Write the C-alpha cells for this entry.
Amino acid sequence: PVILSVRDLTANVNDTPILKGLNLEIKAGEIHAIMGPNGSGKSTFSKVLSGHPAYEVTGGEVIFLGQNLLELEPEQRSLAGVFLAFQYPLEIPGVSNLDFLRVAYNSRQKYLGLEEVDAFDFEDIIEEKLDVVKMNPAFLNRSVNEGFSGGEKKRNEILQMALLEPKLAILDETDSGLDIDALKIVANGVNQLSSADNAVLAITHYQRLLNYIVPDYVHVMEGGRILTTGTKELALELEERGYDWVVEADRVKAGV
Ligand code: ADP
Ligand code: MG
Ligand code: MG
C-alpha cells in the first residue's frame, strides 16, 4: 500500500515559489531519505506536509493513506498519523512535557477509537518509550523543550514519535547538531518504529545519519524538485562529490 503520494506539488512562501513540481511516492515499509543543498526546499516540503499556515500550496496533490492531505487542518494530519520532527523544535513554557505527551497520546487514541488512559496508566506507557530514547524521567516534569539543549530537544521529538507511532514519520534534519551517541539514539528510535505498515522520510543534509537509518531510497532535492533518486550508495556518492554534478546532469537532461 501507498502511504504518501505527492504529484507535481508547487508551493509559495511569501509569494515566492519554493516548491516547483515535486513528485514522490512512499510505500508502506519503506524508509526514504531526501538530501540536498541548503535552500533547496527540504524544510519547506516538510512544513507543507504538516500544514504550516505560512506555506501556500499553489498546485499539485498530496495523498496520504488515500485522503487528500492538503484539505486537512494540521491537527487532523497529525491525528491521521503524520508526524513531523522539526529541525528547530519549539519550546512551550508552562506546559509540562508529561501533560503534553499524554494529551497528544489520548487525542490519537480517541481518533483511533481506542480508550484514553489516565495519568496513572500513562506512566507505564511513557516509561517504556523513555527507554527507547534513553531519556531521564526528570525531563517529563519540565516544560516542553524549555531550556533543553539542541540534542535533548531532538531526543524529545523522537520520544513523541515513539509514543504516537505515526504512519509517516518525517524527520527534518533531526541529525543536525547531534553528537554520535545522540545520533544513534535518534536512529534507534526510528528503527524501532519502522515496520511493514508505516514509513519514514528522513530529510538530511549529511550522509552520516544514513549509516544508522538505512534508506531504501535516496532522493536529491534542488530548486524545489526531486532531481534524481537512488539507493543508499547515492548518499555516499553525494558525500564524496557534493551536489553540483546532480544539478548539472539534470540541466543536461532538460537540455538547458
Ligand atoms: P532547506 O531546508 O532545503 O535548507 P528551506 O525549505 O528552508 O530549504 O528554504 C528554501 C528556500 O525558501 C530558501 O531560499 C529560503 O530562503 C526560502 N524560505 C524559506 N522560508 C522562508 C520564509 N519564511 N520567507 C521567505 N523565504 C523563505
Ligand atoms: Mg522497514
Ligand atoms: Mg531545512
The two ends are 37 Å apart (CA to CA).
